[in-house]
Amino acid sequence: MTRTILGALLATASIAAPINAQTAPQMTRDNGAPIGENRASRTAGESGGVLLEDTTLIEKLARFDRERIPERVVHARGTGAKGVFVASNDLSQFTSAGLFTPGKQTPVFVRFSTVIHPNGSPETLRDPRGFATKFYTDQGNWDLVGNNLAVFFIRDAIQFPDMVHSLKPSPVTNRQDPNRFFDFFSHTPESVHMLTQLYSDLGTPKSYREMDGNGVHAFRLVNAKGDVVFAKFNWKSKQGVKTFTAAEAGAQPFNVHTDDLYANIKAGNHPSWDLYVRILKPQDIAKLDYNPFDATKDWYGMEEIKVGTMTLNEVPENFFAFTEQSAFAPSNLVPGIEASPDRLLQGRLFSYADTHRHRLGANVQTLPVNAPRVSVVNNNQDGPLTATPKDGDVNYFPSRSAPKATETAYRQPAYELDGLAQAKPISKTNNFAQAGWFYNNRLDAKGRANLIANMAGDLGQVKDPKIKTIMVSYFYQADTDYGTKLAKAVGVPMSQVEQAVAEYKAEEAKATQLAAR
Ligand code: HEM
């Protein structure tokens, strides 16, 4: 039966009606030369081999062979949309960044993503969700490369490759394995805040439209006078925050989030988010019982100032050209917005631009989705796929015949440093308090029950009792109710949890003594 249908299809293909040359555009090779036959290879007679001189065939196969670029090493599965950001509140007292002038419209491109799972994986798997925004401002591109969750697992970039290795499929079994990532996290107590958020239903958003976004890091804002404050940015969905339970997420179609986003935009139901900023003055840093440049911490309780609204109103005309080739980098900053000393952010300043040169090449920022909407004036040049060569023969600086300006107003202000060059963990680690606060203040009874069940589903698979006990002891230190319920759910006796807490506290006291020396 199958053979009959296939045979019929093949027969149909070979007798397809000729295309009307009057109306259809003439096909060409990539060199523009017209193609006379696009369905039969050139062969040596009816029964002979295919000829190497069939350049149409060879070019077609060679181009096909090169259609894929490396997928993002993380955040591979994603979807993008175009839109606009409209500023509503004057931020000039804090930053000289022009995009925050009330009424100012700045075009944006946004890409949402999952983190660990590969391109082509279901969109509803438990994961943080990437929320990356490229603002095409009048002073160059500003990329706010954030997540839906407000904090991160680790506080130092040097741990990122190890953490991602533990979360990615095992190099032996090729499967994600809680034994591996909880082994890593049992050495990383600062991950407890993020793990609590991830295993709540926020780890399975209902749609990309119905989730918030967070810049996570502190940024340094500088105003026209050179005054400095620190700031965190976050997006609040005007559609509200909605989540799936684990069971609901598991029952969704494979492409549900992309389909939802595209369908709503195409129907004119354009999703929008308000952008908020929280400001921390340098003189207030010492008052906090945590380090505000520690990405495992949120700035709970600080005033949020609304600065504008972003609306997504256009589905990109081509997925590969826009979404796949989009390249967001925390190092894409504009005057008035600078990096803070956050050690995770400092590592990201290098990593993204580096991976883009590997994934997309040296000319990544000339691709339409990445190109700034202002002139680029510098002497960077050449490299693979140079489509926009620089004018003139002065490709050096300085020059009398073709001078270029470097306005001193754009110099980054100096800041004071103290201390030793050293590789030493931060003080004021305060690893658990905010996780406990989140558990009690951001989750209702059902949310807490779902968190315990979701966490137990993965932690319960861990074979090494030591890893399981240490993990439970961390959650117990965040909140005793949380830890007690989790201990019961994964079968760890409370006496062992208490013992692990005592061991942790002894280690912590030793580390504090050492750090004080
Ligand atoms: C993507 C590295 C932490 C959010 C990526 C990519 C790399 C990377 C290499 C792939 C980029 C590409 O191929 O275009 C790192 C490192 C981190 C870190 C080294 C820590 C040191 C974070 C944090 C956040 C985050 C804390 C959230 C605040 C994202 C997002 C993307 C991404 C949203 C996807 C961007 C897109 O849609 O193209 N990260 N990451 N990452 N990362 Fe990170």
Question: How would you describe what is shown here?
Answer:
The protein is globular, with a radius of gyration of 27 Å. It has 14 helices and ten strands. The chain has three domains: 67 residues, Irregular (Cytochrome C Oxidase, Chain J); 233 residues, Catalase HpII,  Chain A, domain 1 (Beta Barrel), CATH 2.40.180.10; 84 residues, Hemocyanin, N-terminal domain (Up-down Bundle). β3 and β4 form a beta hairpin. The protein has 517 residues and is α+β, with helices and mostly antiparallel strands. Helix content is 31%, strand content 15%. Strands 1, 2, 3, 4, 5, 6, 7, 8, 9 and 10 form a ten-stranded antiparallel β-sheet that branches. Its EC number is 1.11.1.6. Keywords: Heme, Hydrogen peroxide, Iron, Metal-binding, Oxidoreductase, Peroxidase, Signal. One of its GO terms (biological process) is response to hydrogen peroxide.
Level-2 CATH architecture of the largest domain: Beta Barrel
Number of helices: 14
CATH class of the largest domain: Mainly Beta
Order of SSEs, N→C? HHEEEEHHHEEEHHEEHEHHHHHH
Ligand types: protoporphyrin IX containing FE
Structural class: alpha+beta
From the spread of the alpha carbons, the general shape counts as globular
The share of residues in extended strands comes to 5-15%
Radius of gyration: 27 Å
pLDDT < 50 runs, ≥5 residues: 1-16
Helix fraction?
25-40%
Mean pLDDT: 94
Supply the CATH superfamily name of the largest domain.
Catalase core domain
